[in-house]
């Protein structure tokens, strides 16, 4: 399958990009074609109906939408901000929802979160599901929050804890099998 992997974070060295890339490494090793999209390369203004009326959906949102449209499935790792979805990610989802043919609709998506805290961003996982599901994204029922994420990776950006790495690999395997089945059914 063609997979698009991204993080709901902008910083150059965020734990969520590391977590998303770790998932990408496993998916690539399983033979999937993986592309990483950095939201920093797709800057968008805060959603404003006046901007949309004057100039339409920003080119950056259209370009990201094109990447999503070309992918069979998506993997997203999001931070948790104040117990919820980060504003930057919600803004991206809002702009993507304004594309003529909404790129997210019908896509299979695995949702991950990473946080330096003890809860692993679990509240963000539940809040991020909601707008995605409203848009018709098939968010995989299994999700994973990575706690203590600043200490979770070695200098090769690999998960240090074997059990945590196995947990990610197991969840990813389940998601990829599920998405693959549905993508194949749709193509048949
Ligand atoms: C505005 C703001 C709110 C935050 N709120 C939470 C929170 O509710 N729960 C949490 O676990 N971490 C919270 N954090 C800490 C983030 O988890 C931390 O900054 C993390 O590194 C963000 O992910 P990143 O490394 O991928 O950028 C917050 C950070 C910011 C800047």
CATH superfamily: Flavodoxin domain
Quickly name the level 1 CATH class. Alpha Beta
Total beta-strand segments: 6
Distance between the termini: 15 Å
CATH fold title: Rossmann fold
Q: Mean pLDDT, as a whole number?
A: 96
Helix content: 40-55%
Largest sheet, described in full?
Answer: 6 strands, parallel
Q: Runs with pLDDT <50, length 5+?
A: none
Q: From the 3D coordinates, which CATH architecture would you assign?
A: 3-Layer(aba) Sandwich
The helix/strand class is: alpha/beta
Task: Tell the overall outline.
Answer: globular
Describe the structure.
This protein is α/β, with parallel strands linked by helices and about 190 residues long. It has a single domain (about 1-185), classed as 3-Layer(aba) Sandwich (Rossmann fold). The protein contains six helices and six strands; from the N terminus they run βαβααβαβαββα. It has helices spanning about 15-30, 50-55, 60-70, 85-95, 120-135, 160-185; strands at about 1-5, 35, 75-80, 110-115, 140, 145. Strands 1, 2, 3, 4, 5 and 6 form a six-stranded parallel beta sheet that branches. The longest helix has 26 residues, at about 160-185. It is globular, with a radius of gyration of 16 Å. The mean pLDDT is about 95. Bound molecules: flavin mononucleotide. Flavin mononucleotide binds near residues 15, 79, 114 and 116.
Which characteristics define this entry?
single chain, 188 residues, alpha/beta, Rossmann fold, 15% strand, binds flavin mononucleotide
Helix and strand topology:
Layout (H helix, E strand, L loop, with lengths): L1 E6 L7 H15 L3 E5 L11 H7 L3 H12 L2 E6 L8 H10 L11 E7 L7 H13 L3 E2 L4 E3 L15 H26 L1
Parallel strand pairs: 1-2, 1-3, 3-4, 4-5, 4-6
Bound molecules: flavin mononucleotide.
The site of flavin mononucleotide has 16 residues, from helix 1.
